[in-house]
Every structure is written in structure tokens, then in C-alpha cells.
Amino acid sequence: MKRFLIWSLVFGIVAAAGAAGFSSLRASRRGANGAYRTATARRGDVTSVVTSTGTVQPVLNVQVGSFVSGPVKKVYVDFNSKVKKDELLAEIDPRLYEAALAHEQAGLLHAQADKVRVEALLEQARLDYGRAVQLKPANAIAQTDLDAYIANRKSLKAQVDLAAAAIEECKANLATAKANLEYCKITSPRDGIVTDRKVDPGQTVAAAFQTPTMFVVAPDLDKKVFVYASVDEADIGRIRDAQKSHQPVSFVVDAYPNDVFHGRITQVRLNPTTVQNVVTYTVIVEAPNPKMKLIPGLTANLTFQVDRHTQVLTIPNAALRFRPTVDQVRPQDRTVLEGENLDGEITSSAASRSLDEIAAAGGNRNRKIVWIPDGERLAALKVVTGLNDKQCSEILSDNLKEGQEVVVGKKTAGP
């Protein structure tokens, strides 16, 4: 009986050791293959975007200056004042220009009176000439006297023309004086909002060599604004395509972080900006501004929608980035991990490749590999991707079906 108990105990120990070894081997095999996180290929929307930063600016900045010089008599508007077209903004002291206007008015009266005087002399010369002509047949007047009457009449007629020209000259001077007097009143050329005021009452404005800026008026600032975005040269081709297809633009500003503003691309400027060998292009985005939240100078973080595909087969981008180890995949798929290049990436030997080879490699950039569970190992599946965003990619090939699982990563060990 004692021997039976001893053999039973030995048999139990051996069985327990065998079970433990089998469990350890199975766990070790699962550890080699890995416990994977998977995702399901499903239908959804994919939006390709380009991000950028920019600055909010008025659609137009109208600089209002003074054509005449003199002390500023009055200023009628301030910063942020809403003004209408031809509304009075400021006034230059008009006394010198009023005196100049009075001087030109007096000059015009003098010229008009001088013309009347010369016309009277011309009329007298015509009468004298007529009487001389009547006396000529009777030889009652010498020929020289008759010639003098003729010359006097022509001279006075020329003086009448000179007087008429002097009147026109005085009228022009008078118009100039009136214009200078009107320029003393600084008015707004457009409806808008005063964004800058550079003068105060009593300040002297000198307009001898260049027109000084007194105010800056932003027309239609309460209707729309421009966002000047700086876009990298690598993305400018996609931005131009987005402009042609009328893709929307959304952006946020730090002043209102919870508000999303929307606009549209109105212009892609061809003038590049190069800073430390980085080339960027200016893209103009027009956005409505009825609530006046977008004020000049705000920094905007923009998202340009380049393209959008709806209800297409998609997988997470993590599935395209996942790479297992050699012992975790089927033997027939190990060549994929041993150097087969499906992405068409140009390696360090690109200098020795022809342009056709480089172009062909570029055409293969959308060929990717995803891994799908196949028993206790993983199988490689070649797919063709389309549009992608930060989260998922569109699948164009037919070998991946909707609802099929793809590996996106390894599971972390539990507690």
C-alpha cells in the first residue's frame, strides 16, 4: 500500500510537469506570433487636407492723405470709427487757401475789366478807320494816316484776344484755388472702418514732396476679410487643384478657439518667398466677417480641403505602418520583409537610376502591404491605396473586402 502511494505521487508530479511544460510551450509560441490588435475594413469618408498658418488682413487698406499743407484744424473721427463715402474725416486750416481764392477772384475781375477796356478801344479804332476810308477819295487824309488806323485796329483786336486769354488763365487759377480750398477738407473715399489714425488737432501736415498718410480706412471690413496663408512649395500644386475644384477652407484663430471659420481660395500668388532655402507661396483665402470677430493681424491656423471621397473602403493608417518580425509571418510571405519594395521609394542609389526608373518607382508609391491574421501567423496582402488623411486611407484594390480584419499593432501584456 505504501509503495502504491509512492508511485501515485511520482505519476502526479510527472503529469503536472508535463502539463506545465505544454502550457509554457504554447504560451511561448503565442509570444512569438504575438497577440495583435486588429481593425475592420469599413466604408467611410476620407478627406485629404493641407495645413498652414496665415494672417487676417482687410480686403483693402485705403490710405487717406492730404494734398495740401497746413495745420490740422479739426479731426472728426477716431480709431474704429465707421465712415461713409465722402464723410468728413479732418480739416486743414483753410485761411491761406481762402486768401488765395480771393486773390484769384480779384484777378479774374481785373482781367474781365481789362477786356472791356480793350474792346472799347477797338470799337473806337474801327470808327476812326471807317471815317478815314470815307475821306480817302477826296484826298482829305494821307495814306500814312490811313495805314496807322489800320495797324491800330489790328493791334487792338490782338489785345482783345490777349485779354480773353488772360480771363481763361484767371479762371484756371481760380479753379486751382477752389480745389486747394476743398482739399482742406479730408474726406473718406470709401465706406469702411478707420483702422489707423496718424494725426491730431494742431499737428502740421507737410505735403510738399509726398502725400502724408493721415488715416487708413478698411472698406467692407464688417463684410469680409482676407487671410494671407503661407503654403510650402510641396503642397502648392494640391492647393491650386483645390482652388479649381472650389474646395472649402476652414480655420481657427487664437482669439476665438471654439469658433471655426470658413472661406474659399481666391488667389494663389505666383511670387515665391524664400527664407533660409525654404520656398513658400502666398495663398489668399476670403472669409465672411459679419460679426467682426476677424480683426486685422490675427494669426489663423488653416486647413485646406484638397479632396474628399465619400463612402469608400477604408482602413486605419496604422495598418499600413505595421511591420511584423520574420518568425511571425507565413514562410511564403517572408520575402516581403526581406527587401521587396512596394512603395516605390527612391533609395540612396537614386543617382544611378534613370529618370524613367525614378518615375516608375514614383508611380508605385500607392502600392502598400497590410497584414491579416492567418491561423497563428500573419499573411501579407498587397493593396493599392488612394486618398488618405491623418487617420485612415482609401483602399482601391479589390482583394481586401469590407468587414475583413487587418492588423494595426501588437497588444500590450496584461497585468
Q: Looking across the biggest beta sheet, what order are the strands in?
A: 2-11-14-13-12-15
Biggest sheet features:
6 strands, antiparallel, barrel
Which structural class do you get from the secondary structure elements?
Answer: alpha+beta
Q: How many individual helices?
A: 7
- Approximate shape: elongated
The share of residues in helices is 25-40%
Would you write up a description of this structure?
With 415 residues, the chain is α+β, with helices and mostly antiparallel strands. Helix content is 34%, strand content 36%. It contains 7 helices and 19 strands. The chain has helices spanning 2-33, 95-135, 143-183, 236-244, 317-321, 334-337, 355-363, and strands at residues 36-40, 42-58, 62-65, 70-75, 82-83, 88-92, 185-187, 192-197, 204-205, 213-218, 224-232, 248-253, 256-275, 278-288, 299-316, 367-374, 377-388, 392-395, 405-410. A 6-stranded antiparallel β-barrel has the order 2-11-14-13-12-15. A 4-stranded antiparallel sheet has the order 3-10-8-5, with no helix packed on it. A hairpin with a 2-residue loop joins β13 (256-275) and β14 (278-288). It is elongated.
